[in-house]
Amino acid sequence: MIKEIIKLSQLTKKKISFYIIIQMVITFVFITIVLNMILESTIKTSNLNNAVNGIYKISDDLFENDERLFFNQSDNVIILKKFYSWLNHQFDYIVLNHQNLQIEGKEFPDMFKLGYEYGESIPDIYKSIQVNDYFFEYFSIDIDNGRLFEDDDYDISNEIVPILMGNAYKEHANVSDKIQVYYCGKDLTCEIVGFLEDGAYFINGIDIQSLNRYIVMPSFESLTTESTTDKEQRSFELKVYLDKCNGFISSGEAGSSIQNMITSKCYELDVRPFLVEGVTSFYLTMWGLEGEQLYQLLVTITIVMLIIAVFCISINMAGKILFLKKDLSIYISNGLRAKTVLLALFLEILSCNMFCAILGSLMAVLVYGSILFIPLFFIAFINSIIEMIYPAIVLKKINISKTLRGNY
Amino acid sequence: MKILELHNIDKSFGERKILDNISMDIYQGDIIGIMGRSGSGKTTLLNIIGLLDRADGGEYMLNNQRVDVKNEKVVSNIRRDHIGFVIQNYALINERNVFYNISVPLLCKGLDKKNIRKQVVNIAEKVGIFKLLNKYPYELSGGECQRVSIARALVRNPSVILADEPTGALDEKTEKEILMLFKELNIQGITILLVTHNQEVAKICKTLYKLKEGKLELVEA
After folding, report:
1. Which end of chain A is more exposed for a tag (fewer CB within 10 A), N or C?
2. Is B47 within 8 Å of chain A by CB?
3. A132-145: per-residue pLDDT in tens?
4. Among A333, A343, A403, which would you mutate to test the B interface (most chain B Cβ atoms within 10 Å of its Cβ)?
């Protein structure tokens, strides 16, 4: 009998049913978009908050005479290697070094060059950073195509250096392309192994930087703890390891405690203590507030849309009941329970909601690549219950006897 | 055999008392008429008997079972299995054919298609509308519609048929045909309760009551 009621309901007011479905599809499409935006922004905000909280910059304190003395010290590379090794084991350590690259034999658009954002592009100098493994993990960076760095890619003795390109490079280069670069006084042959996902970012200690226009190089590591006898190579390793030791620590501990640990380690290694600075989060906080406002706005819009949709669908269904009240009264006077009628109408609304939820979910899969079946089905079910409240009141108020006699 | 008993039934709408201490017994095979002016409470009484409304006081027994205190589920089942309605404007579903309209009470009971077909065909033959089974209500005359309505009321073999102004929308000739049908059905043993203000309808009744100022008076037995 439930099937009969649903059939009758769909036969009688086809236009209204059609409008109900269209309205619900639009609502669910909107809910899907907003839900995805909320989820995405929540994930990004949370990643960002994680990135901002408890991050400390490590800087050497070598100036003028101290620097000269250290550079002349014969075991400086060994000290730095030991210090880096200790940092890496002691903390969640991020190597993030800004050493721009000079590219030879290939020209990329100006937007990739240093200074482009300030109106003065420096010829042949391209923005680049050198990073370790943990950098990708910490900033939740993934690739668009190709691959991320593997353990062997960090080896300082590699003849061909693997590099990752920012997403904006995608239109100007391909995976496996080779590029000649000049880095820290050395000519290197680099091979593109992948492109980073769009919107990947990092925090440079002051503000957020998009990685879209950056070239990312592995921060080189030497497999030996000893220093090389090759003067040129030794100078290269010194620069590389000094940069590596000027990285970031992610820690829940207080800055002073970290400073104490580093100072004592530096004394142990007989090097001037490195300094620990908390990273300023002024810009990040501003961005966070805007993000929060955007989040609130999206939630408000979703709720308003949902209320309007539920209201309209409820009114539509009540109108349908009023239109069908003669037929429904005939069924009820012939022994059908009002509760069965309600159940049939509820199932009709629920199936419409579920159908639209499936459409919404499919859209989410196609557009966002994420599946939202469970939250959307939950919303569809709750919607259906709320949407049935007013129609149930309307059905209860129908005077069956009067309706059957034609006194509507 | 007594199939329906009303004891001291009261019903008011606001301050106005519509039914005042109504008592009535209906026996198997009776054909009873209730007359009265517009607004005298005829339809209200019929609604209470048909379990579409509840009385404020009194007792209602159907087939020796008190039914006025049952829950909605039981009341729906009693309405489906023991009471048949025939209404002035036929109350047919216009979007469905005659066959479907007659089968509504059987569908509500959840019978299978084969059983429904058998019972619908039987009753359609009985009331002379077999040829109309595939037609739609809007393709029928008033008399034919009322026959469909009667067939629907009869299809589940109810204890009593409640007819509210069954000929009110018909011309004189068709009215006679429908009254004749009621008479034939009654001869076959079907109990009928007619509510009308039409003297012609009243003529076919074995017992006639008049409802006046909420009181039921026996006019003719």
Report:
1. C
2. yes
3. 999 998 888 899 99
4. A333
